[in-house]
Amino acid sequence: MSKISQFPPLLLARAAGLELRGRIHFAKDSIGDVEHGKDEDFEVFRKIILEPSKDQPEKPRALLIVRFRFARFAARTNRLLSLIPIPFIVAQQGFRSKTWMTGQKTGAFQGLYEWDSIEDAQKYWTSFPMKLMKKRAVPGTLNHEITAV
């Protein structure tokens, strides 16, 4: 995605178009599920799915895992605030889904994103919504991993 296409009003317009076409869905079936990590278990509290268009691959081909702790506010407040960037996330090129989770031991937040390609996941790391998240993270707690699926 070009720098121009990362312009927040354009992202909002793209997200609105996706919503109007009925491509954005909140999944309810995985809420409360526990994902077992290497050093901590994470509970799912939200999941959003973007139905693929005709020119996208049938299934996602890349996974991005982002983990961090918020610098301010309680977990409940940060869960609510995490609704704000959703339009900017779903509007990213190659986005397929995001699962929001909180660590059962540390309260760390973890995002599990599915993408059309490794390149799309890599581009997201420097995107507008990631820049917002990086500003809100406790320094030294933000890490990510990108893998092919």
Folded structure, characterized:
The chain is of the alpha+beta class. It has one domain: Alpha-Beta Plaits. The chain is built from five helices and seven strands, in the order αββββααββααβ. Strands 1, 2, 3, 4, 5, 6 and 7 form a seven-stranded antiparallel sheet that branches. Strand 2 (34-36) and strand 3 (41-50) form a beta hairpin. The mean pLDDT is 94.
Given helix and strand content, the structural type is: alpha+beta
CATH class: Alpha Beta
- The residue ranges in which pLDDT falls below 50 over 5 or more consecutive positions are none
**CATH architecture term:** 2-Layer Sandwich
Q: N-to-C SSE series?
A: HEEEEHHEEHHE
Task: Please name the CATH topology.
Answer: Alpha-Beta Plaits
Largest sheet: 7 strands, antiparallel
Radius of gyration, taken over Cα atoms and rounded to an integer in Å: 15 Å
Kindly report how far apart the N and C termini lie: 22 Å
What percentage of the residues does DSSP assign to strands (E)? 25-35%
What general outline do the C-alpha atoms trace? globular
Average of pLDDT: 94
Count of discrete structural domains: 1
- Beta strand count: 7
Helix content: 25-40%
SS element count, helices:
5
For this entry, give a set of tags.
5 helices, Alpha-Beta Plaits, seven-stranded antiparallel β-sheet, single chain, about 150 residues
Helix and strand arrangement:
Blueprint: H1 8-20, E1 24-26, E2 34-36, E3 41-50, E4 62-68, H2 75-81, H3 86-90, E5 95-103, E6 109-115, H4 118-124, H5 128-136, E7 143-148
Antiparallel strand pairs: 1-3, 2-3, 3-5, 4-6, 4-7, 5-6
